[in-house]
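Section 5.1 Outputs to date
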Amino acid sequence: MKKQIKFIATATALLAFTQAGHAAVVNWDNGGVGSDWNDVDNWDQTYLPGNNGTTDRALIGAGDAVEVTSAVLGTNTQFDLHVNATNATLAIGADMSNLRRLTGVNGTVTQTAGALQFTDIASNSIIYETGSWTISGGSLGFNGDLINQGMLSVIGNTASVSIGNGTDDNLTLSGAGGLGFTMNAAGISAINVFDTFTVDNATSLLALDLSLFTGTGSFDLVTFTTIAGTEFGAANISGLDSLTGVDRTATIGYDADSMYVTIAAIPEPGTYALLAGLTGLTFVMLRRRRA
């Protein structure tokens, strides 16, 4: 039954994608030992994606759990990546080369290391409404537009995310698209957009977690050349009172080329009383000195 379902899904995907990009679909079928991308037995062809002389589409489907633990090399052609179901997962911990296009993420992608660069500038890369890409290490780049209808999240300050190479390279939040930022003790890495950052102010989401950051300051979240829309439909900011026991405020701001957060401490009532007392003491000392 599983093979039959796989065949139907593959036939549909192959038809749609052949019309768009004339690519062959290589399906993950979990036929090998474990979840290693580089085990050829885990794919339904006799080769790994990107190793057949034609542009392939690597399709990860329902219930599939795939891991990239060593470098993925498309040796003789580029390939596209599609995480095709809500319960499909891809864990990336090493380089993936010769990537052409992210044709869709419906499931969950986590990236802790490795360099990824999607090189196609002719078509959009897409994270769908049910999908998410979370990066805490390594680098992630798109030469063309990224349409984010799901969640694109950055953890800490060691990852690098860039959208564009200088030609029509935009980040658009549409549908329920959102951005997530989890600061570590040192801050956060900004998402760098070469052209326009577009925010759908009706449905977009901004999530900011400050639980691991105990200080104050101002940090870029997104850098861009131009921006369309500056209001998110919803914002979820957590961790303002964590670890240090000091209440803080977080304010989202914009300037000509960035969206940033400013984190400031709120003095406790006792601090205000102490300041008032010191002011009064200074006044009394001045009066006595003048007398």
